[in-house]
Design a protein that fits this description.
alpha/beta; 698 residues; binds magnesium ion; globular; 6-stranded parallel β-sheet; 7-stranded parallel β-sheet; 22 strands; binds adenosine-5'-diphosphate; 18% strand
């Protein structure tokens, strides 16, 4: 039955989920720009554009019963709307008076245009927001509202909060996604069989529950299902890689014991016990024709690179070639600067291969590598994978393994002249034991806990924002003494663009406050060349102060930097704070880490106190695990760990799911190594791999 003239919405086919969204949803044409900004090209990508938290506004109250500091909703009559125009730096304000017979309240919006157009005196609305009290009078600040009688996705329910980008509002994202979900969910096919998913909801239900849960209690099951799929995708690629490796052989690299002692004697320092143990473990692995897969973990500055240098030199002395790869050009350059002298002391010639070299120079190095004259090559993953054929590559060292994508790994395997190179991955991210057992199950792990001797501990202090003027004077005096400082701006979880904006604002503020200082700015929205050039200028001592977002986390080594100032430190993960702190204290001078925070709640204070009280990355990671609340925060992605969006490797429930996913993955892959009969599982696996590659680009 068709009503006259009206187009009936055609239900989507499963194939539609991967077609361009503007073709499948022509009725949302005005959403095209918003989808574009959010990076959503297909209905499937929209389905997986998940909220990173929720506001629970399902608590519907009478105005007379509102309580302070909680998220609540009320059904009210608007008795008056007033617009106060902005003036100077003060933004426009819209103030509405509300009443419901039990009492009255006020709602206020700052700088939000158009609110007044949707809000007329006399209308009845459902209003949702956080309530504070001004005297006796309850006030909603920037609440959501919708007309009574119009079911709304914004009010009086559990409301999803999405990551935003330039100019797209929460309301808009929510409305667009609701429209897409309505038609797309029926077309979603579950990649798992009922027996495989067990008590977990099917995929369509999970997606609905993750975006628009009926009640807060629906969220965990929905997220568990999505987490399980991510974990399964990860475990599938691991199981397939393991299968593919089963027949592969590496070169047996015999590092002679006396030769090794001679190498160690030639180093400018004695290795610590932990370093020495790591070297021995690596040398033992190299002697076997089973390809080494070893992760070397240790805090920033613990001497991982020195261990890698010994391993590379050992391989070269045994007649083979080595390579060291870093995620960015500037890091590769720094590795070269640090390693070349060590390797030279060990009698080994290292070449630096850079994307920015002139074609002729690049060609010469390629030839030297191919002819086997270049003994160790240092560069970025991309540059080394690009066009290089090694004569006899036996060891590949990879800095920060998580950035080493699946594609790059495959490219490298083809370089080993028929043999698989041994792989040594360096990481400064402490890997909890549980994680090691589930995700790095097929990697051996060497750990450096002990710092090289003579290292001065970084002094870490917590300070309120009101101390900023004093801190700025301190930054100026450090600059006058020839030292350098980092200023890390608050993390804005909602969006990288907002983080960048706050970095720009802080940069301008500090330039005005400290006119005598040379100040630079780096953030993730800049072009890579701009960012690299500024970082290089800072490393060269041409800047006194570097204002940055967390892009510097896995960053440059500047021994002359003595201060790390982290603003709104309570917004960061503890492991992240610890990694940021590791940027200073690399030289001889006393260094400082200042955690700026106005957070008064006990948990925030307790968390920061952990970082102040410990310089042990493992201890901090464990405390972080313990103190992390049972909040529903999604996507707190930590560098060094797999690119999971929903699954949390710190969530005990998810570790159980991870083990279950591992068992299922092994069973699926051993029955059908190519997964030829399960194309949907292949897509799941590849979606995760491309998320990993996007992480590389970011
Ligand atoms: P990581 O790679 O773990 O960040 P590095 O290998 O770069 O650490 O070492 C940090 C600094 O400490 C370097 O300047 C390095 O030369 C020095 N270093 C490394 N090992 C030792 C050691 N055993 N004794 C003294 N200095 C060391
Ligand atoms: Mg290093």
């Amino acid at each position: 039955m068709q009503s006259a003239g009206l187009p009936v919405p055609v239900s989507l086919s499963p194939e539609d989920l991967d077609r361009p969204i503007r073709l499948v949803f022509p009725e949302l044409s005005r959403g095209a720009a918003a989808f574009g900004k959010l990076g959503i090209a297909t209905p499937r990508q929209a389905l997986f554009y998940l909220p990173f938290r929720y506001d629970d506004f399902s608590d519907l109250r009478r105005l007379g019963e509102l309580v302070a500091d909680e998220k609540q909703s009320a059904r009210v009559k608007v008795t008056d709307v007033k617009v106060e125009p902005g003036f100077g730096r003060r933004p426009q304000r819209v103030i509405a008076q509300l009443a419901d017979g039990s009492g009255s309240a006020e709602a206020i919006w700052f700088g939000r245009r158009y609110v007044e157009r949707r809000l007329a005196a006399g209308s009845e609305v459902v209003i949702s927001g956080k309530v504070t009290f001004r005297g006796w009078r309850p006030q909603f600040t920037s609440p959501e509202f919708s007309p009574v009688g119009h079911e709304s996705i914004h009010t009086a329910r559990v409301v999803p909060i999405y990551r935003l980008v330039g100019g797209v509002t929460q309301r808009r994202v929510r409305e667009l996604l609701a429209r897409v979900l309505e038609r797309a969910l029926p077309a979603v096919e579950d990649p798992l069989l009922p027996a495989e998913r067990g008590e977990l909801p099917d995929l369509a239900d999970a997606l609905r529950g993750a975006h628009f849960p009926e009640e807060a209690a629906d969220v965990p099951a929905a997220l568990d299902r999505l987490a399980f799929d991510e974990l399964l995708a990860l475990q599938l690629s691991m199981a397939q890689a393991r299968e593919a490796r089963a027949g592969q052989r590496a070169a047996r690299v015999a590092v002679d014991g006396d030769e090794l002692l001679a190498l160690l004697a030639a180093l400018p320092f004695a290795l610590t016990g932990d370093q020495r143990r790591a070297v021995d473990e690596i040398v033992a692995d190299l002697a076997s024709d089973e390809p080494m897969r070893r992760l070397l973990q240790g805090d920033v500055g613990s001497g991982k690179t020195a261990v890698a240098a010994v391993a590379l030199a050992g391989v070269v002395r045994a007649g083979w070639q080595g390579a060291l790869m870093a995620p960015t050009e500037i890091l590769a350059r720094q590795h070269h600067l640090g390693l070349a002298p060590l390797l030279e002391a060990l009698g080994v010639r290292a070449e630096f291969l850079s994307g920015s070299l002139a074609a002729a120079a690049k060609g010469r190095i390629h030839d030297a590598i191919e002819a086997g004259e270049a003994e160790v090559v240092i560069g970025t993953h991309a540059v080394i994978a690009e066009a290089v054929t090694f004569d006899r590559l036996a060891l590949a060292v990879v800095d920060e393994q998580h950035r080493f994508g699946v594609a790059q790994r495959a490219a490298l395997q083809a370089k080993g002249s028929g043999r698989e190179p041994h792989l040594l991955a360096l990481t400064a991210t402490p890997i909890p034991r549980t994680l090691a057992l589930t995700f790095y199950a097929d990697m051996a792990i060497s750990t450096i806990r002990e710092m090289p001797p003579g290292r001065r501990a970084v002094r870490t202090e917590m300070r309120p924002r009101s101390a900023l003027p004093k801190i700025e004077a301190f930054l100026a005096s450090e600059a006058a003494a020839g030292r350098q400082s980092f200023v890390v701006v608050p993390l804005v979880a909602e969006s990288e663009a907002l983080s960048a904006a706050s970095a720009e604002a802080e940069f301008e503020r500090l330039r005005a406050a400290l006119p005598g200082l040379r100040i630079g700015l780096v953030h993730g929205q800049q072009r890579a060349e701009t960012r690299d050039a500024t970082m290089a200028a800072f490393a060269a001592g041409e800047l006194d102060l570097l204002v940055a977002t967390t892009v510097i986390e896995v960053g440059i080594d500047v021994p002359n930097a003595s201060v790390m100032l982290i603003e709104d430190a309570d917004r960061f993960g503890l492991a992240q704070l610890h990694q940021l702190r590791g940027r200073v204290g690399r030289g001889d001078q006393q260094s400082f880490c200042i955690l700026l925070t106005d957070a008064v709640d006990e948990r925030a204070q307790e968390r920061l106190a952990v970082v102040r009280g410990s310089s042990d990355g493992f201890e901090i990671a464990e405390a972080d695990l313990r103190l992390r609340g049972a909040g529903n925060v999604l996507g707190t992605r930590q560098s060094g760990l797999p690119p999971l969006r929903v699954a949390s490797l710190f969530e005990p429930r998810h570790l159980v799911l991870a083990e279950r996913a591992g068992t299922l993955a092994r069973r699926l892959v051993s029955a059908d190594p190519e997964l030829a009969r399960r194309p949907q599982l292949i897509r799941m696996r590849d979606d995760l791999a491309s998320a990993e590659d996007e992480g590389d680009a970011a």
